Amino acid sequence: MIANQIPITPELVAQHGLKPDEYQRILDLIGREPTLTELGIFSAMWNEHCSYKSSRIHLKGLPTKAPWVIQGPGENAGVIDIGDGMAVVFKMESHNHPSFIEPYQGAATGCGGILRDVFTMGARPIAALNALRFGDPKHPRTRHLISGVVAGIGHYGNAFGVPTVGGQFGFHTRYDGNILVNAMAVGICRSDQIFYAAATGVGNPIVYLGSKTGRDGIHGATMASAEFDEGSEEKRPTVQVGDPFAEKLLLEACLELMASGSVIAIQDMGAAGLTCSAVEMGAKGDLGVELDLDSVPTREAAMSAYEMMLSESQERMLMVLDPAREEDAKAIFTKWGLDFAIVGYTTNDLKFRVKHGGEEMAVLPIKELGDEAPLYDRPWVPTPKAPVIAASDVPAPASLGKALLTLLGSPDLCSKRWVFEQYDHLILGNTVQRPGGDAAVVRIEDGPKGLAITCDVTPRYCENDPIEGGKQAVAEAWRNITAVGGRPLAITDNLNFGNPERPEIMGQFVGCLKGISEACVALDFPIVSGNVSLYNETQGRGILPTPTIGGVGVVDDVAKSATLAFKDAGEPIILIGETTGWLGASTYRAVIHQREDGAPPPVDLETERRNGNFVRGLIAHGKATAVHDLSDGGLAIALAEMAISGKIGALISALPEGIPAHAALFGEDQARYVLTTDDPEKVLSDAAAAGVPALCIGSTGGNALTLPDGESIPVSDLEHAHESWLPAYMSGALDVSEN
Amino acid sequence: MKSAVILFPGSNRERDAARALKAATGRESEIIWHGETALPDGTDIVVLPGGFSYGDYLRCGAIAARSPVMEAVRAHANRGGLVLGICNGFQILVESGLLPGALLRNSHLKFVCRMQHLKVERVGTPFTRDYRQGQVVEVAVAHGDGNYLADPETLARIEGEGLVAFRYCDASGNHLEGSPNGSMNAIAGVYSEKLNVLGMMPHPENLIDPLVGGTDGLGLFTSIAGGARAA
Lengths: 739, 231
Fold this sequence. Notes:
By secondary structure, chain A is an alpha+beta fold. Chain B: This is Phosphoribosylformylglycinamidine synthase subunit PurQ.
């Protein structure tokens, strides 16, 4: 067993991820040298992952309020009101560092953690999504990481019993050393039955529920708060091991316990385990907490206080129970075969006391553990403005059709069927729109109401212009929800960046937040929960700035939601929004010319709102038979996806005037949609009245997509190009070195 | 029509099964905890739902097959009562010996969730009276261990006695290139000798609604309900 009273050397402090001035802060705060357990507690509370010490100062100004927001950031998850007495609880969180070290368990426990965040608040999870970023397909680790992450997410979500309905999946060499695994969960509960973390009442029992505590995951959050170096492989023991079976039992037991009325407060044990959960429950309720570790269920013998306080063993919860209902609560947990132990009490002295073997191992001021965490206003420099690249300066391809097939089969734009078929996306019987559309649509119980859910960000835009990139991520989430007919309500953000101690990285962070903020305000789309993941950097090379936005909207009648598949032959195709042929930072330029430079397309939020509201209105009135938003790859990719999905071709006879054809087809101007209708006169006249640019560009029909230059590509060829790359790559059949 | 859905620790499609039964019968199912030793009086059909009972630890369905409630399920089946095992429920039925064969890891070693066509191989059973012989239906599959295997004698007997309930096929009912799991003879579901116990890997309970993929699965539940009404 590790002794509790050992000299605290500078080396020991450094091993705990604490800087010398941070250690001095501890000494000043408690007026003495900490015990080893106390040092561990400080390292758990004051690391970047738990304390947000580099980001807090910038997160304060984010728009988090709206009349429909019940709970904004600061709880386990955000909560919004969707009417009819129902609330949606959702959040996204990263598990980047552990997933790189051990992809299967890292991704699995990422799912487990976010599901727990949602049901901790009393909501039953009804959908999961994930945003994944991997390195260059040519990188020797990429296939291994993909297969592990996808299997891990599937393993956890499938067994837990939540449909995994959508997300993002992309590649870039800047993720070679740091992949991103951002997991989002969405749950439903009655709006008057939401559970919070703040403890109330002195002398109430604190109950430990769920799986036993082991030695896994010790220092996991500290590991996730540092850059990787060549020794990162050695950090595998800091990755937790997931047990979705235990989580499923925990879900059912917790919801049953909550329904019984015996829960006063509840907090899941996530990052920094017992330490973080106990401190938060006390601090939020202005109470002290006394824990007796002799009562903690352990799965290994002779665990020290230090190990128990820092373990990140999964599938565990902490609750404050109504003392009068203790026996009922215990019976529920015993029925589900889970551990139930009273491990402490709330106190009135605002101290966090930890006892073990009859000895006091830690006595710390509970409020200050959180409130007095270091706060940094790190120096930052704005990202230099990228030059605007004119369409005429980007060479046209020899064949538009061949360029389209190349883009459709490129790693970023190809079908992700290989991934989503490993996720159970149909369980619960409410998946109205499956993976592959603009947003997933999940019906709530027997309907008619449903949720539209999406994850979005375009990292190469954020790299070239963090402000426009941040705006675009929010706008695209808003647009994807709109494209299925949903009313966008709120977002969760997962801010993935490199090392914040570098001013240019901090500049990306500040810029993206500014853009996100502006878009949230302009689109009435507040942030209700989120997570910051910094230090996604290996040997001085950071990831692309990747602020993933998880958006949630409500669809009033899922029977009226729009899908992207062409429905019938002979329907006019209408392009909504203004096309300038913006090829700077476009997928076309990246894939065809291997150039990613240039200013990204600007986002005009007023236009975004006007065009989106117009399209949503068409859907609500049954005037649009198919709708797709335009994003990566532009108009040509959108048309191809609509054709593939509907197994119907199209003849494109007109494009916006005065723009080179390749720029009109592949440009990525924002605030645009393409739709089909059986009433084109009405759509065009309504658009004109609303001040929304609308242009009839052709009509559906036949077995091929025919471009304005006469080139005709069979839909079966489009589908083959779209579906082939990922399965071939993952089977090892593809020689990527020549790709 | 009285139905009981068994809840094992780790079951996760019990609500889906109960919903399909309600859609077909108009009545709520009773959810029965695996620790019970008796079924409710007058139970017409027992459903063992999909999921990951006991986390699929040891072998899929192996631990659940030894749950207290399974003795009551066995007695119900021996009396001629209807038993339907879906996905993990099918695995539990083969592990408990109520159905022949075994379900191994999918041949491609991955979990597979997708829409899948099935051919109705035998009509006129309590589960298929609302389908046509040879009808092709489209339902969901979602499993990691659905690779049906039986020894040669058993397989010959199942085929000879017409105990194959459903077979994976393409949209036209023909041989399917790229089986979802590598099952022998593309078997997706089998009956007991007396045709009162059916186990199947696909999920008809998720295909009962035109808004959520179609209604091809509903026939199985209306068949059960119709049979109970006729009896």
